[in-house]
Fold each of these.
Amino acid sequence: MRQSVVAGAGEAGPQESVRRAWWPGRARALSGTLTGLAALLVLGALVLPDSVDRLGPAAFVRVPAEAVVGAVLLPALPRRPRMAVAAGSGVLLAALTVLNALDMGFRQYLGRTFDVVLDWSLLGDAKSYLEDSLGTTVALVAVAGTIALILLLFVLLALSMVRLTELLARHPAAAHRGASTAAVAWVACASLGLQPAAVPLASHRTVTALRDRAHRVSETLRDEAEFRKVARADAFGTTPGDRLVPGLRGKDVIFTFVESYGRSAIEDPGIAPGVGRMLDARTKALARAGFHARSGWLTSATYGGSSWLGHSTTMSGLWISNQQRYRTVMASDRLSLTEAFRKTGAFETVGVMPGVRKSWPEQKWYGLDKVYDAFGLGYRGPRFSWSTMPDQYALQQYQERVHGKRPAAGKGRLSLLILTSSHQPWAPVPRMVDWDRLGDGSAFRAMEATGSKAADVIADTAKSRAEYGRSIRYSVTALTEWLERYGTKDTVLVFLGDHQPIARVSGTHASRDVPVSLVAKDPGLLDRIDGWHWTDGLRPARDAPVWKMSAFRDRFLTAYGSTPGPGRN
C-alpha cells in the first residue's frame, strides 16, 4: 500500500501532464509577444516623424539604418557593457521621442519646432492655458498623466532595447543574417529612391534628428550674440524728443492688438465670408461717423501663440522670434514705439492689459506711465475661458478711466490696448450688448453659462474654426463700435493682429501674415501714408503690400515726421 502511494506521488496524472506541457507553450507565446511589442516600440520610436501632418501608416513602414547598425554592434559587446549601452540607447531614444512629440505640438500651436534651449519655460504657460480653458482639475490630471506617460516611455524603451539586444546576442548567426538582409534592403531602397506614399523606405530619422537638434542649439547660442549687436543699432534711439512724431502732436493715438487676428480670418473660405461682411459693414459705419481707414499686411514674428513676441516686434522694430531675443530687448534701452511718444514729453502714455494677471516689468521698456491690468478694471463678471473679460467691457473701462478724461494741458495721449476675447480656445465667445448696460460685467454671467464649452471646441476642428471666426467678428466689432461711439477728430487708431491662429484653424501651411489698419478722421493723417499703398477700408486686398512686422516702427515714425538721430556703435 505504501509503495503504491509513493509511486502515485511521484507520477503525474493526465491533467498534470497537460498542465506541464501547456505552461512552456504559454510562456513561449508570452515571450514572443513581449519581444514583438518591444521591436515595434523601438522601430516606431526610430521612425517617428516630428510633424502631425506626416503621421500615417507610411511613416512607420520603413527600414531604419540605426536599427541595422545597432543589431550589428550591440550584440558584439561584452554582457555588462552591452546591457548598459542598450539601456542608455533606450533612454536616448525615449528623450528624442519626447522631443519629437514636443515638435509636433509646437508646429501645431506655434508654427515652429521646439527649442531645447529656450522653450522649457513655455511648458508652464501651456499648463496655465489648460487651467484657464478646462479647469484646474483637468489640467492637473493632464499634467500628471503626461508625466506618467513620459516616465513609462523611458522605462519601456530602455527595457525593450535590453531585451532585443540580449535576444540577438543569444542567437548571433540569426542576428547576423537578419542584419545583413536589412542592410541590403536599406541600401537598395536608398539607391533606388523608393518612397511609396512620398515617404522614403530607407530611413535615418534618428541620426538626422540628433544632427538637426545639435545644429539648432548651436544656432540659438550664436543668434543670442548676434542679436545683441543688431538691437544696439537703433536709427531712432538717440533722436531728441522734439524730433519724434511731430505730425501727431496733440492727437489721441491708440495702438491695439487683436488676439489671433490673422490673414486666415479674411481669406480662408470657411471663415472669411462672415469676417468680410463684418469688415465691410464696419467700414461703412465708421465712414458715416467721419472716419477713414487704410489697411495692409504685416508678417508676424510668431504664429499661433506667444503674442508678446508679436507685440514687442511691432513696437521695437526688431524681429523678436524667441524668448531669448525677447528677454534681450526687454533688458535693453532700445526705443519702443510707445516710448517714443513718452520721450517727446508731449504725450501721456497708458496701457490697458486685461490679459496681464501678474507683475509686468515690461511696462518700463514700453514707456507706459500707467497700466490697467486684469485686476485694475473693476470687472465682476465671469471669465470667458482664457480671456479675463469681454473686449467690449475692457474698451468701456478704457473710455471711463482714460479716454473720457482730458490729458494734462497741451498734451496728447498714447494708449496701448491688448484685446483678448479672440484668444483660443474660442469658447465661450461673448456677444455685443448695449454699451450703457455693461456695468461691472455681471450682465455677462448668463452669456458665459450658456456659451460653448472649451472642451467641446478644443476637440472639434470644425467648431474651432467656426468659433474663431465668431471671436474675430466680436473683437473687431467691439473695437470699431467703441471708435464710432467715442472717437473724436483727434483720435488715431492703429489696430492689427498679433499672429495667425493655430494650425488646426489656419492650416499647416498658412502664412504668418496679419492685417493692420490705420483709422482717423483727419484726412491729412492718412495722406501721410499714401506711399504705403494700403487698401482703403478695414479689409486689406489680397495683393496689398506685405511688410515684416519689424518694419512697422520705423515706417510709422518716419511717416509722422520723426528723423533719425546719431547712429550707435
Note: The radius of gyration is 31 Å.
Amino acid sequence: MQSDDSPVIVTGLFFCAEKLRQGAMTKKSIGSWVFLGFALVTALLYLPGLDGPFLLDDAQNLDPVQEYVDGHRTAESVVFGNRSGPLGRPVSMASFVANAKLGLFDAYHLKLVNLLIHLACGLIAWRLMKRLMEVDGSFRNPTLAAAVLAAAWLIAPAHVSTVLYVVQRMAQLSTLFMLLAIWAFVVGRQREALSPGSGWLWLLVLSPVLTGLAAFSKENGILVPLIAGVIEIAYFRRSRERRLTPACRLYFGLFLLTPALLAAAALVLRPDYFLAGYEQRAFTLLERVLSQPRILWDYAGNLIVPHGPSMGIFHDNYPLSTGLLSPATTILAITGWALVIAIAIALRKRAPSMLAGIGIFFAGHALESSFLPLEPYFEHRNYFPSFGLLLALAALINTLITQGSPDEQNRKRLLTFVASVCAVVFSFATYSRNIVWSDFAHIMTQELRHNPTSPRMQTILAAEYMDAGRLDEALHHLRIAETYASDRDKMGISIAKALAHCAANTPIDDGLIDELLARKDAPISILALNVWERLSQRVEAGQCAAVDAGDLIAIGRSWLQSTSTPETEHGNWRVRYNLARMLASQGSLDEAAMLAHQAWESSRHNIGVGVFLFQVSASLGNMETCEEVLDILKKSKGKGDLRLDKAIETFQSAIDDWKSGRRIGARLIVPLTTSGST
C-alpha cells in the first residue's frame, strides 16, 4: 500500500468529522453525522483495494494516455480522439489526462481518484434523496433517511468492481453528473410548482448542461430526461390538477420527446447501425433481451443481499435465455418484475418513492440492458440504477414499519437494528472484496474457485502461463476454456493454442493445424481477433521461430475466405490487416499490399492501415498508391498523433525525392514500421 497517501485520506476525513463534532448534535445534524461517518468507513474499507492491478480493458482504454505521457500524442488528441463509445467520452478521458499531468498515472492513484468520485457521488445522492423524500412526505426525518440510504450505497459490496476497475471511472463520472443533473431538475421543478417561470434556468440550462457532461463521460448520461420523467410521474403528478408549466413542457419536449422520436426513427431507418455488433458476439439479440430480466434480478440480489462467489468481473459464462421457458426462471423473472412494478403503481400515492425508485432502476438500465449488442452482464452497469433500488426499498420499509408499529420508539429501535445489521454485513463484505481486489493472484484464485467455467477467466490464466513460457499449463487452461466456450469463440481458443506454442518456442503439431482449418468458417469474434493480433505480432517480430509462419498465413487466408463475418466488419478488416503484416515480414510484399489495400478500403481509411499500406507500396515502387494514401493521411495531420505527423513528413519527403529523380532502383526506401493507430 502506498502509505504516503493513506494517512492523508484518513486525516482529511477525521478533520471534517472533528469540525462537525464541534456543532450541536441536533435532529437536523444527525443525518450529516451518519453520512460523514460512513464516508470515513467507506474510505477505510477501500484502502487495501487501491493497491490492486489494472484489469481487462484498462490497458486498451489507457494506452492513448500512456502515449501522451511518452510524448507521442497531445492531450487534446487523447481527450477528443477516444473511440470507446459513440460520443467519445471526452470528460472521462480528460480526467485520466489530468492524472497523467499530475504525475499520478499509476494504478494506485487512478483508483484513489475513483474512490474520491465514489464519495462525491454518495454526497450528491444524499442531498438529492433528501429532497425527494421531502417531496414524498411520508418520511419522518428525510435528512436521516437519505443519509442512511446514501451510506448503504457507499459501502455496498456490489460497487467494489466499479470503484477498483480503473476505466469504470467513466461509469462513475457519468453517475456523478447524472445525479447533479437530476438534482437540478428537481430544484427547478419545485420552483415551477411554487411559481411558474421561476425554475427555467435550472430546467433549461443547468440540468441540460450537466446531462451533457454525464453523456460525454459515458453515454448513459442521455437517460437523465427519462429519469426526470419518472420523477415527474412519481412525485409531481400525483393529482391531475398539477399541470406542467411552460418551462416543464419545454424541458420534456426538447430533451425527452424529441430525442426519443429521433432515436426511434434512427432505429427504424438504420437498424444495422445499432445491431451490427452481434456479428462478433456469442449471443443473439433475442437471447440478450430475454436474459436481461434474470440479470436485473441478479443485480438487485447482489446489491441487497451480497453473495461474494456470485460477484466478480467474469460473467461471460452467464447462462443465457433462449426462450421464455429456457430456463424456466426467464418467465419467472419477467413475472416477478411485472409484479414489482404493479405493487409500486398501487402504492404510488402512499409511497411515491417506491414508484420513483423502481422507475429509476429500470430507466438507468434502459441503454445497457436492452437490445444493444453489449455483453449481457457487468456489475458496474448497476452503479447508478442501484440508487433507485435502495430508494424503493427504503420506501417499502418505511411504509411497512409505519403501518405495523404505531409506537414511534419501537419503530426507531427496529430501524436502528436493521440498519446496524446491514452496515456490519456490508462493511465486512466490502472489506473482504477489497482484500481480494488488492492483488491479481487473489482475484484469479477466487474466480478459479467460484467461477471455473468462465472462458475469459481461463484464457487470461492461459495468457499468464504463455508469458512465462509454460506451454502445458497454458494449454490446460485453454482446454477448459474450450469446454465452456460458445461455438463462435472456439476458433479464438484454437488460435490461442497456436499462440501458446509460439510463446513457448514449440512447434505446432498437425492436429492443431487440422483443428484450425476445421474451424475456418467461424465468425471473427472479439476473442479470436485479439489472439490473432497477438499471434501475428509475434510472427512479424520474428518471435515464432519454432512455428511455421507459412502454416499460420495459410490458416489466415482460409479463415478470411470462409468466415461469415462481412469484409467491412471491424473484425474482418483487422484480421486482414494483420495477415498483410505477417506476409510482409515473410517477404510476400505483393500479397501484403493487396490485402492491406482491401483492409484500407473496408476500414474506411483507418490511419494505421494507411501508414502500413504506404510503406509496403513504397517498397514495391507503387508511387501512385503512395500518393493516394498520403493525400488521405494528410487530412489527419495536426490532430495530435505526433508519430503520424512525423510519418507523413517522412512520406512526403520520400515522394519528393522520388519525383526529383533521386531513386534507389525503382522503389522508395521506407522502413516497414508501425505508425498511427488501428
Note: Residues 107-136 form the longest helix (30 residues).
